[in-house]
């Protein structure tokens, strides 16, 4: 339930605000809307082209009484590429949060123009309207702006690879290292970096109050789609949904280039706590770039596949396959122009010092709750689809 009096980290009363949330119908947006409705008095103008993932917040299930937050969330179906209503919504709000983006790696090298337009060009009016109207902006960037680690350029067994300054990614220190232009994978990172620089410059030259968020592999329920069920059969979502899809269909999990890249995964519900702190503590969050991730949850992609196989077997009651994984080349899986981030460990000093935030959930626990959700949500639909295919 929304509480009447909320205090910020400095003990001051938090006034209810109106938030224009662009991309509210996506994975992160849906969790942020849920949190804001259930625990705060704030109002959300939810902007997206899709609303499926927030439908449960917009209308109560048939026959049930109105949600406690009815009237505090309004959905505006619009494409920010070409809709003149956007400026009005930003003007009506105290804060704009921009989540809208193409952000699945399979698109970066195959649809580089859409990727660059979505992550840079389409975000320009949002930044301009905030700056011109004196509105605060929280913009979602990505940990991918760091690109590759410095250590990855050293020989494999070089002792410096073990030194944290050669791989830990720090907002105000680490460089941004991308591959060459023909490695179109980096079109996303490069567009995100340029919009970060533009926002930073708007802050420096025109006084824009901004916060930039760099998510490090947030995962949980409602992430992406399961191909052939609630997304295109040929679509390639991010790794959590790819591996979930393989597990649901009892296929081996595909390890791109052997699954040697490393990632740190953070539970969406932990990460959303960090965003709420940013929303409600502008004095501590304005002018900052924050890494949001969990440095304790590092695995190789191969280890992730093994852990997901083990956890899924437990939640579904089905034994794992004899050969649960299969190697596939990145060229076959993603096509020409793919490249990869080798390792992503966030430095947590800034977010910890300014907002006191630390992630809590272990990789095992977050996979258990997420795969329980995937199994409950999708297993029947997949069984029906597979039965249909076997009879045609
Ligand atoms: P998502 O794809 O689930 O959500 C993005 C939402 O934006 C979608 O609902 C989409 O319909 C909407 N959108 C896109 N273009 C739009 C347009 N032109 N007009 C209106 N709506 C539009 O992705 P997500 O995982 O929720 O990510 C949100 C943000 O966080 C993105 O900017 C992404 O780059 C960033 N990010 C996320 C992660 C992660 O771990 N999930 C990691 C790095 C960066
Ligand atoms: N990956 C994989 N198999 C899959 C999907 C992804 O091995 O079915 C790998 C991918 O090559 C990358 C990592 O998993 O090394 C994470 O991919 P994701 O799409 O989640 O996004 P990223 O972290 O690269 O932004």
Strand content: 5-15%
**CATH class category name:** Alpha Beta
Mean pLDDT: 97
Helix/strand order:
EHEHEHEHHHEEHEEHEEEHHEEHEHEHH
| Name of the CATH homologous superfamily | NAD(P)-binding Rossmann-like Domain
Binned, the helix content reads 25-40%
What distinguishing features does this structure have?
binds nicotinamide-adenine-dinucleotide, binds uridine-5'-diphosphate, 15% strand, single chain, Rossmann fold, 392 residues, seven-stranded parallel β-sheet, alpha/beta, 38% helix
Write up this protein:
- This protein is an alpha/beta fold.
- It has one domain (101-382): NAD(P)-binding Rossmann-like Domain (Rossmann fold, 3-Layer(aba) Sandwich), CATH 3.40.50.720.
- The chain is built from 14 helices and 15 strands.
- The protein has helices at residues 27-39, 55-58, 85-92, 105-108, 112-119, 124-132, 187-206, 239-248, 268-280, 282-285, 301-316, 330-334, 349-355, 363-391; strands at 18-22, 43-48, 73-77, 95-98, 136-140, 168-169, 210-215, 218-219, 253-256, 262-264, 266-267, 288-292, 298-300, 325-328, 345-346.
- The strands form five sheets. Strands 3-2-1-4-5-7-12 form a seven-stranded parallel sheet, with helices on both faces. A two-stranded parallel ribbon has the order 6-15.
- Helix 1 (27-39) links the parallel strand 1 and strand 2.
- The model has no long low-confidence stretch (mean pLDDT 97).
